[in-house]
Amino acid sequence: MLKTLKTNHGDISLPTFFPDATRGVVKGGLDTVDLSNTKVEGIVINTLHLRGAIREQFNCHLLMNWTKPIITDSGGFQVMSLIHHHPKLGKLTDNEAIFIDASGQKIIFTPEASIQLQLKLGADILICLDDCTDPESPLSLQEKSVERTINWARRCKIEFDKLTSQKNARPLLFAVVQGGKDRSLRKKCARALVELNFDGYCFGGRPLDGENKFLKSILQFTASLLPNDKPKYAMGVGTPQNIVDCFKMGYNMFDCVIPTREARHKKLYIFNKPLEQIDILNQEFYSSIYLQQSRFRDNLQPISPFCDCLTCQNYSLGYLYHLFKIKDILALRLASIHNLRFYTMLMEKLTR
Ligand SMILES: [Zn+2]
């Protein structure tokens, strides 16, 4: 099993979890020092959202004062969330994705432009632009998406090779497997991408169906199509249990808004026992608490006795309850720090 991934900003131990810093910040008031302290090994930023924030010689590492790896999401997810779901916000052709921004301005996004921007942002891991679909979309749309995704990945690789061939420190380029819930399409997409030989492969599309059920079987099938000597990235996964399930299938990279979004909504994760006593692959290993409940008001204990995060080492549940009650932004930061550390501790446990 792959244990380490070498990048231009240090080695990443696998499996690993990246929080989403979509617009160059992890929501919840955390700065990059907080992120380092929670021991996250990398962050995911969004190419489309950050295209206006950088200048020549001023990439996102410098902008954010972040010295660890940066993964750039190509803009493929916005193809689904904006263009497929809201056709007024853009248009898709075989050549490009066209977005209409809030001011009505047209943004033409080709696979080549996506690679150029990701390199400018300072990415350590670039993702090929893909036509991301919803798993519930009709088969004809999934077929088109796979065709485009393969063609765009080929164009991304040509542009990437052209722009990085002279560089001493070459970043990594990952491709995204689309195909919705259809096995033959996932197979077609994975085979074509593996043939093109990328540095890693991602499971693309929402990992949940229309009823928000985890698409375990298609995730498992897709993992089986990908080479074991390259990283397998389950994009957008997920809950702690979903991550463990995907790890068993062979995935070793994850990103998701869940830990920080749940923290902002007062939901905190806790391990059921000290980590060394948990059989994480076979047991129910965690639960969650909801800080809305007044039973926490007089509680002077930390969120978890098994957590070494800044919040648990210094503050009580009662204080956090109070901060949420008075709606102070410190509540969001302390809760987010705890949940992110829960996720990195989960990774440490899976690494062992
Ligand atoms: Zn904690």
Automatic annotation (TrEMBL):
<dbReference type="GO" id="GO:0008479">
    <property type="term" value="F:tRNA-guanosine(34) queuine transglycosylase activity"/>
</dbReference>
<keyword id="KW-0819">tRNA processing</keyword>
<keyword id="KW-0808">Transferase</keyword>
<dbReference type="GO" id="GO:0006400">
    <property type="term" value="P:tRNA modification"/>
</dbReference>
<feature type="domain" description="tRNA-guanine(15) transglycosylase-like">
    <location>
        <begin position="4"/>
        <end position="349"/>
    </location>
</feature>
<dbReference type="InterPro" id="IPR004803">
    <property type="entry name" value="TGT"/>
</dbReference>
<dbReference type="InterPro" id="IPR002616">
    <property type="entry name" value="tRNA_ribo_trans-like"/>
</dbReference>
<dbReference type="InterPro" id="IPR036511">
    <property type="entry name" value="TGT-like_sf"/>
</dbReference>
<keyword id="KW-0328">Glycosyltransferase</keyword>
<dbReference type="GO" id="GO:0046872">
    <property type="term" value="F:metal ion binding"/>
</dbReference>
<keyword id="KW-0479">Metal-binding</keyword>
<protein>
    <recommendedName>
        <fullName>tRNA-guanine(15) transglycosylase-like domain-containing protein</fullName>
    </recommendedName>
</protein>
<dbReference type="Pfam" id="PF01702">
    <property type="entry name" value="TGT"/>
</dbReference>
